[in-house]
Each structure stands twice: as C-alpha cells, then as structure tokens.
Design a protein that fits this description.
The protein has 313 residues and is α/β, with parallel strands linked by helices. It has one domain: 4-Layer Sandwich (Metallo-beta-lactamase, Chain A). It is 39% helix and 21% strand. α4 links the parallel β5 and β6. The radius of gyration is 21 Å and the shape is globular. The chain starts with a helix and ends with a helix. 42% of the residues are buried. The structure holds zinc ion. The site of zinc ion has 8 residues, from α4. Zinc ion binds next to α4.
C-alpha cells in the first residue's frame, strides 16, 4: 500500500513537472539577437532551440540563409528595420526544421527559395510529414504552411546578385542529408549552416525524428572546405556565436572536436566500457570543457560508438 502511494506521489510529481515543461512558452523565449558579421552581412543569433539565421543586404534586395518558422518573423522584422528592400532569395543550409521550416514567413516578398535536390526531397518526405504532424498540435505550425523550395540544385551553383557573388556548395552528407555552405568572396564571409557550431556541443542532424549526422562525412566536409584555402575572415555558424575575424581556426577547432571526442569514446570502448557506461562517465577534455549544451553530447557519444563499430571511424 505504502509502495503504491509512494509511486502515486512520484507520478503526480512527474505529471506536474511534465505540465510545467509543456506549459513553458519556449517559443516566446526563443529570442534572436542581431550580430554584425561585416558591412552588409548580419547574423541573428539564437542560443536556445532555434538556429542562427543570416542575411545580406544589397542595393537590389536581401538574401537570407535559413528560416525557422518559430523565429523567422523576428529576422524579417529586423530586416524591415534596416532596409526597405525586399527579400529576393532564401537559401537553406539543410532541411532540418530549425533551418528550413520558415520560408512561409517571407511570403509577402515572394523570394526565390533555393535548396539542393536532396533537401527538396526531404521537404516532400520526412520533413513534410513532420510539418504536417506539428500542425495538429502546435499553434505556430497550425497558422502556417510549409513552403517548399523553388529551385533544387545539385553540386554547386553561383548566384550573382546585388553586386555580390554567392557561391552555394553542396558539401555532402555530414551534419545532415545534404549540407550547403554559402561563400561570399567580396565580403570574405562563408555561411556554414550546421557544419559549424561554436562554443557548444554540436547537434545531431535530426530530421523528423531520424538522425542523419555522420562523423566521417562531417570531418570530410570540413577538410574539403579547409583545403580550399579560401580568403575568408569569418565562418558563420549555424548555432553559437560568430567569431568575427577568427577565420579557418573555427573550422579546425570543429574538426578537432570530433577527432578528440571520438578518441575518448574509442579509449573507453577499448577499456571494455558499455555504451551506457560511456554516456554516463565520459569526461569532456579541457579544451572543450567550456562548450555549452552538454546534453547534446549524449547523442554524439552514440554516434561515435556505433560508427566506430560499423566503419572504424
Ligand atoms: Zn540546426
């Protein structure tokens, strides 16, 4: 009897806790902060569940990278404050909801929405399904529509617009099914999407409940970009603060993170530790100890563990 009552008490507590989480106005708190990357290039930084979004203001209009339905209204409001030019192009770095769900917010300006063919397929397949699922329960989604890309490219494409060159490169499958970077040579800036996260543990490439990140593809993409020796002052991350002027050191740090963390997991595997033991006891090496959002590490430990068994690295 006591045991039952004890359990009832715990369940009641859990219910209160769950209700508290469910009732929390997470969307309202998901604030985007303006950061200037360089003249005409801006990043809206988000430190919670949403992604960063970037925009470039030119004489002919605005180019935006990434739109999360939950926060793209804040990005558009900021653009409206800074220019009377319309948003002419919207590019997506990858198909995850926190980057590709919010094109609808820009409908008044009718931008050309550019994605890769793979991203476009995702938005018709699992991401489209996820959007429809969310429309059943989430008021923000209920009041919106999924806007799919106008153009799907493969490999790379170059956009000449507003006196600037935007070089879109499909870097491959690393963080997601298809990661795109945007290099703007006249600004010495490269927009990285989630191939670069700064000062936080990187996120697993979740797309409608399926995890797509793979360490091999991710480090290969970073290697490929580093090998281009691009004239870039700032690589703009998909999450975390932009380190203005730090250049390629940001990419080297991101790559090193994967190598060092995978090494830690591998050593623990050799010592006979199980996955759950590794998840519970792994220590973050000093050089990454300041990284925030540590809970995200757990999904990556799984990734290091299974991908080491599956393919060695
Ligand atoms: Zn993201």
């Amino acid at each position: 009897m006591i045991r039952t009552r004890h359990h009832t008490y715990i369940f009641a507590l859990l219910a209160v806790f769950a209700a508290a989480i469910g009732a929390a106005p997470a969307v309202a708190q998901d604030k985007m902060e303006l950061r200037t990357v360089t003249d005409g290039v801006y990043m809206m930084q988000n430190d919670r569940g949403s992604s960063n979004a970037s925009f470039v203001i030119t004489d002919d209009g605005v180019v935006v990278l990434d739109a999360d339905l939950r926060t793209a209204d804040q990005v558009l409001a900021q653009i409206r404050k800074m220019t009377d030019k319309k948003v002419k192009y919207l590019i997506t770095s990858h198909s995850a909801g926190d980057h590709a769900s919010g094109a609808w917010r820009y409908r008044e300006d009718k931008p050309v929405f550019i994605a890769t063919k793979t991203q476009m397929r995702d938005l018709y397949m699992q991401e489209g399904k996820e959007f429809a699922e969310r429309q059943k329960t989430d008021e923000v989604y209920k009041a919106s529509q999924l806007t799919r890309p106008d153009i799907g490219f493969e490999g790379s494409m170059t956009l000449q617009f507003g006196g600037l060159t935007f070089i879109l490169t499909e870097e491959g499958g690393g963080h997601s099914t298809s990661d795109v970077t945007v290099f703007i040579p006249q600004k010495r800036v490269m927009l990285m999407g989630d191939l670069l996260d700064t000062e936080i543990h990187p996120g697993q490439g979740e797309s409608a409940g399926v995890f797509y990140s793979n360490v091999k593809g991710w480090t290969r993409s970073l290697d490929n970009i580093i090998a281009r020796n691009l004239p870039v002052d700032t690589y703009v991350p998909g999450h975390g603060p932009a380190h203005i002027g730090r250049g390629v050191a940001d990419l080297q740090e991101q790559k090193r993170y994967f190598i060092v963390m995978r090494d830690e997991v591998s050593k623990m595997m050799k010592a006979g530790k199980s996955l759950s033991e590794i998840e519970k006891t792994i220590e973050v090496p000093k050089e990454f100890a300041h990284y925030k959002r540590k809970p995200r590490l757990v999904s990556f430990v799984k990734l290091f563990y299974y991908q080491t068994i599956e393919q060695g690295y």
